[in-house]
Amino acid sequence: MTEVPEARSVPRPAQTYAEVEDALLSRWPETKLEPTLDRERAFCELLGEPQRGYPVVHLTGTNGKTSTARMVERLLVTLGLRTGRFTSPHLQSMTERIVLDGEPMDEAAFVQAFNDVAPYTHLVDADQPHPLSFFETVVGMAYAAFADAPVDVAVVEVGMGGAWDATNVADATVAVLTPVAVDHARYLGDTPEQVAQEKVGIVKPGSRVVSAVQLPGVAEVLAQRCQEVGATLELEGVGFGVARRTPAVGGQVVSLQGLRGAYDDVFLPLYGAHQAHNAALALAAVEALVGGDDPLDAEAVEQAFAEVTSPGRLEIVRRSPTIVLDAAHNPHGAEALVAALDDSFTFNPLVGVVAVMEDKDAEGLLAALEPQLAHVVCTRNSSDRSLPVADLAEVARGIFGQDRVSETASLADAVDQAAALAEAGGALGEAIGSGGVLVTGSVVTVGEARALLTREPV
After folding, report:
1. Please, which residues bridge with residue 322 across strands?
2. N or C: which end of the chain has fewer CB within 10 A?
3. Could you tell me if 309 and 327 are in contact, meaning their C-beta atoms sit under 8 angstroms apart?
């Protein structure tokens, strides 16, 4: 058994965000998991079961969860409902994880949310074999903050998997499954079907389930779970979906078939076919939650999607050369990224800046990116889980060849090198278009690059 931190004494109230950040980071990290809900159940019981105080739209899947959650939230806010949203991991600040009515908590509110639950963390720590983890503590903070607001609906993204994810102490009114593929194989399994067995754990008796198109084996696992617990299943391509989409300046125009009506010529300021499918999924989830037979107000739908943002997902943060950030961190995500680049951009050359976590499939991710990238600069982020630069570069050279790979230990230097290469290639007229830079490989990588390159809020 891996050693865990000792139970803590009763904490004094935190005064600053830095104190809260330190207190949370001193807990068991969210990347080291023990598959149980015992601690979170005990925590929420002490908090008065806040997760029972509102309907929950619960999202799982391999990629697209955060973007879809943000779309669900924006639709609900536009329809006049008060929302809480919990997503993870964060790009730049822990405060991004707990959102009320579309706005992340400010630091003062985050401190208060921590202080509200901190005394109960001590009680759980003392009573359980292992203390509460970082992730479990923040989940409890979110559920309590949503109850205190109070919210009309909570939109909750799982951290990993589903069945034993700490968020799963809530019962989904609507359970949403984005496409399921292999990721976190150490914990979830190394086939899509094994991964699906964990993810369908968010489907509870009476849930209304809204699912993206899935691989046949995954679809079978999902259908079986719905039958076992008496949940209602709505599948993309059967009950709802994308009728058509056209790339446009600043995003795309989509026509969506919902569960209760058609919504034509909706502008979505996000790039890629995968985001159009996320939009269809979000729309169906909201229709399922609101209920009834009538379509949603078409103007509200148009307004909501026009206002959607998803930082770090094909996000342009600088021009001359254009620098794009995308948090793809597995082969499935990289394939969607490449398709979106083909669909919506003309970069030539496109230079990649890549830093990945050591537990990820770096080879699969780089292989998916290779057709798009003229050159790749291998680097690392600040996490101690970041794959060493030399190891990443060795993998990259096996895919790109010696001359198309360079390496540097500094993310800032890597971005500068890539920008210089992109500008030089564009100036030399290597092909039609202009040079660009893509920063990718990890949410942490993208978050740190975003902090370097823009002051735009998340």
Report:
1. 436
2. N
3. no
- The region that residue 321 occupies, defined by phi over 0 for left and psi between -120 and 50 for alpha, beta otherwise, is beta
* Coil/strand/helix, residue 105: coil
Q: Are 269 and 354 found together in one domain?
A: no
Within a 10 A sphere around the Cβ of 299, how many other Cβ atoms?
A: 9
d(CA 93, CA 55): 27
Final residue of a structural domain among 306, 326, 351:
306
CA 352 to CA 408: how far, in whole Å? 13
pLDDT digit string, tens, across residues 342-400: 999 999 999 999 999 999 999 999 999 999 999 999 999 999 999 999 999 999 999 99
Backbone angles phi, psi at 234, to 5 degrees: -120, 125
The domain boundary residue, chosen from 249, 273, 306 = 306
Encode pLDDT of 74-126 as tens digits: 999 999 999 999 999 999 999 999 999 999 999 999 999 999 999 999 999 99
Contact between 165 and 200 under an 8 Å Cβ cutoff? The reply is: no
Domain count, the chain: 2
Instruction: Report the distance separating Cα 269 and Cα 305, nearest Å.
Output: 8
Residue partners of 215: CB distance under 8 A and separation at least 6 = 180, 181, 192
Give burial (CB, 10 Å; 0-12/13-18/19+) of 292. Answer: exposed
d(CA 227, CA 233) in angstroms, rounded, equals 9
Residues 6+ apart with CB under 8 A from 216: none
**What is the C-alpha separation between 182 and 175, in angstroms, rounded?**
20
CA atoms within 13 Å, Cβ hemisphere of 194: 10
For residue 402, give its domain range.
315-453
Inter-helix orientation angle 107-127/17-25, to 10°: 30
For residue 202, give the nearest of 239, 175, 229, 234 by alpha carbon. 175
pTM for the whole thing? Answer: 0.94
Residues 274, 142: one domain?
Answer: yes
Beta strands 262-268; 315-318: pairing state = unpaired
Could you give phi then psi for residue 36, rounded to 5 degrees?
-155, 150
N-term to C-term CA, the chain = 38
